[in-house]
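agent: user wants the structure for Metal transporter from Sphingopyxis macrogoltabida. delegating to structure tool.
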Amino acid sequence: MYSLSRARFCAHKARRAWLCGGVLLAAVAQPVAAQNLSLDEALSRASTADPAVAANMARLEAADAAILQADVRPRDVVGVDFENFAGTGPYSPLGRYEATGWYERTWERGGKREARIGAARADVAVVAQQNRVRLLDRLARVQAGWVEALAAEAAIPVAEARLADLQRVELDVVKRVTGALDPWFSAERARTNVAQAEIAVEQARENARLARASLAAWWGGTGDFKLDSAAFQQIGTDVPAAGNSADLAVLAAEIAAAEAKVKLAETGNVADPSARIGLRQFGEGNDFAVMVGGSIPLGTKAANRGNVQRAQAEQRALEAEVAVSRVEIDREIDRLVADRRLIAVEVMRIDAEVLPSAERAVRLIRDGLARGGTAFTFLEFSQAQTAVNDARSRRIDLLRRFHLLGVRLDRLTGRHAPWLAKMETIR
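agent: tool returned. relaying tokens verbatim.
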């Protein structure tokens, strides 16, 4: 029975060695031109190939067109009136008709034209600030993708180290089984764990490949690049210098636009007069006469009161919203900084306390199994090795959360604002 089991084990090891060899050949066959991709390089590539820039430019062009339209005064009117061309008695068809051709012009007063232009220009400023927010959000998503790719890459060594430990212990367990120190199911359990670890390594590599491809999709590239794992291991808790908040800049632009709309609404309190001049032809006698007329709306101030009050209320609401947003942004920055510090402390304690102890336990049990003693069993090694793997996985998850919180922190403090000038001058 032992010889059959030994043959089975040797065949299994040969198959695994062939698989490992295939993996090594694939690694050797990969292009050597792959370069390390830093965060700045990722942002640079995304900023030069982002289709959102074209959409933002179209929004600005639409806002600029609104300024052009705001400069247009009321159009002059030309008309023709026919009177008394049909009726009864003496007003038979075309008997005493009167035809009048006239020209009318309206004069805007109260600075309406200037107010319209000012409101349109304020809207351009709002669109520009909103575009900046959109671009910063996209850069933040690129940075988040870079963090996810780093986390996926960091999971590969953990899976490979676990596989190497299980493979070494599998050999020791098989020796103990053949020496009648452990039952054969221990070898089967060890072999099962090795197979699961091999699957975990393959999945970790595939996840890393997919994460790189997802990151490269931001600039339409491929995932044929490497990532510097050192950037993922850094856990600096320095608070980045706060720049001008893009979100508050949008609100400030909206306040200026609301103020311009108040001025525009107030110009509606002034009535616009109209004047008309025309030439009238009398069908009876075929005589001509010049006619002049004019008009001006009455009660414009009362009729426009609601528009003014609404514009003023919208301005007050935006001013209050700025104060609320400033407090919320400061509160979120403080929370992010505190959460990052807690994570950094836990990572340092895992490095200083948890991992050394857990790895020492694995080494002691593995050495005991290799010496052939009966003080340890494979079950104890499996539990100790699981503790190490859990600590390493926990550490990666903490680092991932740490850097994702950093993404949000960078977004709020405007760390990537210098990239906007490059993105806005592409087209």
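agent: one observation worth passing along. The chain is about 70% helix and 10% strand.
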